[in-house]
Amino acid sequence: MAPQGARMTVRWFVPSGEVGALNIALQTLMTATRAQPGCMSCSLSSQLGERARFTYVEEWRSEEDLKSQLRSERFAKLAHLMEGATERPTVEFVLPGGTRGIDYAEEVHGHQGEVS
User: Fold this and answer.
1) Given this model, what pLDDT does residue 54 score?
2) The model's pTM
3) Does 100 map to a domain?
4) pLDDT tens digit string along 59-79?
5) Strand locations in 48-112, DSSP E?
6) Number of domains present in the structure of the chain
């Protein structure tokens, strides 16, 4: 990723019974993400076991491209998936100015507590 780029990584564990539905939802979001202006890449990986681990990564050309997406309906769908998770996912934003957590999305969205 270029120094001016931005990356969002979401990691979470889900019970084996939730794997199929989450995989389909994330695959759909990943396809939509790749079509967005400024998207450099979007990937999904999973490790299956008693609990499955999903890692969803979006890489953006610039922090402004990422900010635009954090305000989108597409991101609202991702946030809804995270809010409905049995276990709270971890979210990491790697930005030109440093690394942030979910508070960055809340700040960009402009409503503290709306994205959890």
Assistant:
1) 94
2) 0.87
3) yes
4) 999 999 999 999 999 999 999
5) 51-60, 90-95, 98-100
6) 1
- Total residues found in the chain within this entry: 116
Dist. CA 72–CA 87, nearest whole Å? 24
- Which CATH number does the domain housing residue 103 bear? 3.30.70.100
Checking if the pLDDT of 6 tops 90, the result is: yes
Kind plus residue range of the DSSP H or E element containing 31? helix 19-34
Structure tokens at 70: 């954090």
Exposed/middle/buried for residue 17 (C-beta within 10 Å: 0-12, 13-18, 19+): exposed
**Does some domain include residue 58?**
yes
> How far is Cα 14 from Cα 88, in angstroms, rounded to an integer?
10
Residue 114 forms part of a structural domain: no
Is residue 42, in this structure, part of any structural domain at all? yes
